[in-house]
Specification:
The structure holds two protein chains of two kinds. By secondary structure, chain A is mainly alpha-helical. Helices cover about 70% and strands about 0% of the residues of chain A. Chain A has two domains: about 50-95, no CATH class; about 105-330, MetI-like (MetI-like fold), CATH 1.10.3720. Chain A has helices at about 5-10, 15-20, 30-40, 45-70, 95-105, 105-135, 145-150, 160-170, 190-215, 220-225, 230-260, 265-270, 280-290, 295-330, and strands at about 75, 90. In chain A, strands 1-2 form a two-stranded antiparallel sheet. Chain A starts with a helix and ends with a helix. In chain A, about 45% of the residues are buried. Chain B is an all-alpha fold. Chain B has a domain at about 90-260 and about 275-295: MetI-like fold (Orthogonal Bundle). Chain B has helices at about 1-15, 25-50, 55-60, 70-80, 85-115, 125-135, 140-150, 160, 170-180, 185-195, 200-210, 210-225, 230-235, 245-255, 260-285. Classes of the chains: A mainly alpha, B mainly alpha. Chains A and B meet through helix 1, helix 2, helix 3, helix 4 and helix 6 of A and helix 2, helix 5, helix 6, helix 7 and helix 9 of B.
Chain lengths: ~325, ~300
């Protein structure tokens, strides 16, 4: 089924205000006849309320998608006017654009580079946001209020600005962390440098999500374990962590979706880092195809391909993680 | 002080059995301190770097602020740059983010309420479509969106940046679930019996009860739009329309080769962080983060 359906199914049931005010079965009211009559009254309000959303969804999600698919089957007719003309003639190209994308080694390399950043960044995000959430929840820990705000702070910094900020920190001439002697934009180091910017930006948000879920767990469970002689660490690892699995799963899927759309960080670091090419990650490549090389047809094909791949990856990841999550609940 | 001394005897008696225990749990505290340092130090450094003139930037120790008027000089240079274009970018960012988030909250809130509180032909089907749309990588849609709008010559204006970001399937989902849970059928029925019109019920009861979800959606969308880079990047080519992110990026591209301009970009980075950070940290209590994970269970 859908990610959201699963999300609701795997989520813990914290006692939120929403839950306590939750839908109750309608009791027998004083005027069942009147209610029955009124229920049959058709109101146009829901249609009216839904219209803007549906229209916008059609115009800005469905239509662009369909149009991109249409474009992806076209190509510029050779000899048919210069690029950038008002009406460059486009002819049907069949699967040519897709074949070209699949055959292009650089396309696969860009995916590989994106995955490399994801493999570094996503586990680091999950590990540290869970670790910090557990520390915030630990007994007699100090600095809790300050650390919560401090770690959340980077979330308020836009990705581009965060990349500029870290860019200056990496840059040899301005680096406060030894950029003069260590090349943060080296061919291997650059993956860690990019991943670090991304992790810095999302760590706090994920930590707050996990911490909120942690606070909603039944406290008496921990107290019982403590009475049984379990140490703080044991409680964290054996009780809190397993109970957090659904939330951590959710955060992982979200982080993964984010990681597969990597663009802001490499795009912003590109002007100052030679290691980052104009086709470094897939989205950067689509941009280069469509805007630098003016081949919107190729750009459309790659775009569509990426959307399909991302959705597939998300569904697969969601299914796998859900299975793991279920197993750990057993 | 009074409270402390009043608690004194009780605390003393309580302390006795656990006297051998350390009072501060050291390991988590240390981990939190390191985490906080990692998150705050870069912002602190940019604050320090912004106090330096270009020469000082390259010659003085990195964590030592300078007090030779560099801060004011940098800010002046930033706001004077290209006839004050930076101020325009900041204003644009506010227009995009506040306008977009407000409209988006209305659109998604209305849709969520309709899906949560009404059954009509196709409502279940429509909700399924919206749930499936959550999986779509929104950022990746930017280029198709541009291609379509460019076809009709509709790029390069405020609407081209705001309109594509108004519908968030996740926000609709969140509002639907929240409306189902918080706006009880009893209340709606009672209002109907009292003769309230459906629209009145929605506006004066539904919307009010849904306000925690609406605030959360507003903040989520605000950040989403404020942080969105690719969409304005492809939609706009007039720098008068740029949001801060685009503008700063352009500034870096222009000055990329010349280290002489770094101090302006650094000042720009600082100015784009501080107001939002203050806003955020002060609004933190209104966030219902639980709505994003466990709370949506409701």
């Amino acid at each position: 089924m859908s990610a959201i359906g699963d999300r609701a199914a795997i989520s813990p049931a914290p006692q939120t205000r929403a839950a306590s005010a939750g839908t109750r079965p309608v009791p027998d009211g004083p005027a069942p006849v009147a209610r029955a009559r009124r229920r049959h009254r058709r109101s146009l309000l829901p249609l009216f309320l839904l219209t803007p959303a549906v229209v916008l969804l059609l115009l800005f999600t469905v239509a662009p998608g369909v149009y991109a698919i249409y474009l992806s089957f076209l190509k510029v007719k050779v000899g048919g006017g210069l690029l950038g003309d008002e009406n460059p003639t486009a002819v049907f190209a069949g699967l040519q654009n897709y074949r070209a994308a699949f055959a292009d080694a650089e396309f696969w390399h860009s995916i590989l580079r994106m995955l490399t950043v994801a493999v570094i960044g996503v586990p680091a995000t999950i590990f540290f946001s869970t670790l910090f959430a557990l520390c915030l929840d630990a007994k007699r820990a100090r600095l809790v209020g300050f650390a919560r705000l401090a770690i959340f702070l980077p979330y308020a910094v836009p990705g581009v600005v965060a990349s500029l900020l870290w860019g200056f920190i990496y840059l040899p001439s301005t680096s406060p962390i030894g950029g003069a002697s260590f090349n943060y934009f080296g061919s291997h180091e650059v993956f860690f440098s990019v991943a670090n910017v991304a992790v810095w930006g999302v760590l706090g948000f994920n930590m707050v999500v996990i911490y909120t879920s942690l606070r909603s767990l039944p406290r008496d469970l921990f107290e019982a374990a403590e009475l049984d002689g379990a140490g703080e660490l044991q409680i964290a690892l054996r009780i809190k962590l397993p109970l957090l699995t659904p939330t951590v799963t959710l955060v992982t899927v979200f982080s993964l979706i984010g990681a597969l759309q990597l663009f802001n960080e490499p795009a912003t670091l590109k002007p100052i880092a030679n290691a980052i090419s104009s086709t470094w990650v897939p989205l950067l490549r689509v941009y280069t195809d469509a805007f630098v090389n003016n081949d919107i047809y190729k750009g459309a094909a790659t775009s569509f391909l990426l959307i399909v791949m991302t959705v597939t990856a998300t569904v697969v990841a969601n299914t796998i993680l859900r299975r793991i999550s279920r197993r750990s609940e057993r | 002080m009074a409270a402390a001394s009043a608690a004194g005897p009780a605390a003393a008696t309580r302390r006795q059995p656990g006297a051998h225990r350390p009072r501060v749990n050291l390991i988590p505290t240390l981990i939190l301190a390191v985490g906080a340092l990692y998150c705050v130090a870069p912002v602190l450094w940019i604050l320090i770097a912004s106090t330096k003139t270009n020469d000082e930037l390259f010659s003085t120790p990195p964590f030592e602020p300078a007090f030779h008027g560099g801060f004011v000089t940098n800010l002046r240079a930033l706001f004077a740059y290209d006839h004050g274009i930076f101020g325009r970018w900041a204003l644009n960012s506010v227009i995009y983010a506040v306008g977009g988030a407000a409209l988006s909250t209305v659109v998604c809130g209305c849709a969520g309420y309709a899906l949560g509180k009404y059954r009509f032909p196709g409502s279940v089907w429509l909700f399924r479509v919206i749930v499936a749309a959550v999986l779509l990588p929104q950022i990746m849609l930017a280029i198709p969106q541009f291609l379509l709008l460019a076809k009709f010559g509709l790029t390069n204006n405020y609407a081209a940046v705001i309109l594509p970001q108004l519908v968030s399937p996740f926000a609709i989902y969140l509002c639907k679930i929240y409306a189902e849970a918080s706006v009880s059928d009893d209340i709606i029925e009672a209002a109907r019996v009292d003769g309230g019109s459906e629209a009145r019920i929605f506006l004066s009861i539904g919307a009010r009860l849904m306000s925690p979800a609406l605030v959360t959606v507003f903040l989520l969308q605000f950040i989403g739009i404020w942080n969105n880079f690719l969409l304005p990047f492809v939609m706009l080519n007039r720098d008068q329309l740029f949001p801060l992110t685009e503008g700063l990026y352009g500034l870096l591209i222009i000055t990329g080769g010349q280290a002489a301009q770094y101090s302006i970009v650094i000042a720009g980075v600082l100015v784009s962080i501080v107001p939002l950070a203050v806003l955020f940290l002060s609004l933190q209590r209104y966030w219902r983060v639980d709505l994003l994970s466990g709370g949506v269970k409701a």
